[in-house]
Design goal:
Elements (H helix, E strand, L loop, with lengths): L4 H8 L2 H35 L3 H6 L3 H44 L12 H13 L2 H25 L4 H49 L1 H6 L3 H48 L10 H25 L1 H17 L17 E8 L9 E8 L4 E5 L6 H8 L7 E6 L2 E2 L5 H5 L2 E5 L9 H5 L8 H10 L30 H15 L3 E5 L7 H14 L4 E6 L10 E6 L2 E6 L1 H4 L3 H10 L3
Parallel strand pairs: 3-8, 3-9, 6-7, 7-8
Antiparallel strand pairs: 1-2, 1-4, 4-5, 9-10
Organism: Aeromonas lusitana
Protein name: Glutathione/L-cysteine transport system ATP-binding/permease protein CydC
Membrane topology: Multi-pass membrane protein
Length: 581
Amino acid sequence: MRDLLPFLRIYRQHWLSLSIGLLLAFVTLVAGMGLLSLSGWFLSAAAVAGLAAATRDTFNYMTPAGGVRFFSIIRTASRWGERVVSHDATFRVLTRLRVWFWQKLSPLSTGTLAGFRQADLLNRLVTDIDAMDHVYLRLITPIGAALLSCAGLVFFLSFFDSELALTLGAILLAGMLALPLVFYFAGRKPGQALIAEKSSLRTRLVDYLDGQAELQMFAAAPKALDELQQAEQALIRAQARMARVSGLANASVQLLSGWTLTLMLWLAGHGVGGATPDPITALMVFATLASFEALLPLAGAFQHLSTSLTSARRLNEILQEAKAPEWGEEQQHASAGSLQIRDLTFTYPDQTEPVLRGYSLQLKAGEKLALLGQTGCGKSTLMGLLTREWNPQAGEILLDGKPLTHYGEGALRASFSVVSQRVHLFADTLRGNLKLAAPDASDERLIKVLEQVGLSSLLDNPDELAEGGLDAWLGDGGRPLSGGERRRIGLARALLHDAPLWLLDEPTEGLDSQTEREIMALLFKLGADRTLLLISHRLLGLEQMDRIALMEEGRIRLCAPHAELLSDDYYRSLHQRLAPV
């Protein structure tokens, strides 16, 4: 139960609506008990009164009939109100839980989340948080309403016969203690399996949809689809096991209800409260039958408790294992963008061989430097260290003469712009995607930046407010745009961000030669007054860089201008093979 504590604190923020839902659930149960008990007494009393002419004419039919109608209306209204209020409160709690969990998750870097797959994180954010609704809808509300209503019923029946009331109360109390405990253990493994299979299916489905291009290319789609169907069947089997436990729980409550009803009928058959058998006997029996309406949800509540506990445990794994980086107190961002890297050493978790070995590099303010190297030499790792996705085990990185660790998160993010080969576009308008880099930018500034990066064509639409211009809908991933247009939007974001240091990570990868030349020309033009660090394995336009650094096995092998490097046999052969014609 300790795993639920962080989430129960969120529930306290909505205590009023949750309490109203609990109160309405209690009223619903009381009205149901009153309706069935009064109906049983009324039918019996009316039948007895009808046996004799004297009582037939004097019996008050109107008051009990009005009571039956009253309880019927109250039960219907409170049931509807309880559903509306409790579900609305639950949805608000789940919304708050998602926001709270996302606030905990969003500061974490890629490095701290490296042990979790993206599909698994999505599953925890959606399915595991959804399972938290069991805590209120199937646990807190049923238990609270059952205890209050059954206690009230026993107190009411004690006015007629205290022994019968205590007998019924003892049976109900035993049922409230035994049934939840039994079906918690019965549903623990099926509940854990249900969460695991849901997670597995969602992860496989996301991987299957995300990797369609590669699966089709390597003719692996049928195998992946077969594995997806197997995961689906495993989930169906887990759901069937849980359904069997639910059926057994309901049958057990019904069986206990029947036995208790038989016992109460036998005990009350000789009269209630020492009197001869009369309609109060029927009231006592029907009240017993009504009391089990409160007991019925309890077995299911604890049956699903294991699901909520498993989900809470999975969410806590991320909150406990993934720690956000510690940021400094410097709130002023860098103004020049100079970099100094000294004796940097970094090894990925669970690996023994370091990726960077005593890496040192200096980048002056306003300088343009290209970093070349084969795949795996540590270029992208360096980028991750510069953006603090990872922290080095040794050495330091200075930005404008200050260690990166001295900068606050906002100050560090404002000090550089990252332009990579993967420019993510959200399912939003062109304006919305650009304003991610500058939320306060005016439309005039956005239009100017688009013209600077050569995207004026996106603005050439006579109906700008509907289908074109800044209100053009880009869709998920910017599907209507070409690869070159997406890269240009990445450049537009960098301009809007207006940082002194540009970190360019393979910005032209995957583009055709003509588009690549255009993008590189834009980079040099728009970044003329900025410090540029270009990470690439392409040689197009590198003669315009101030210096070129060659990386090998986590170190800088050579660092000099293009003309000087041509005297090196390795660089000259590399240039002859890879330089564009």
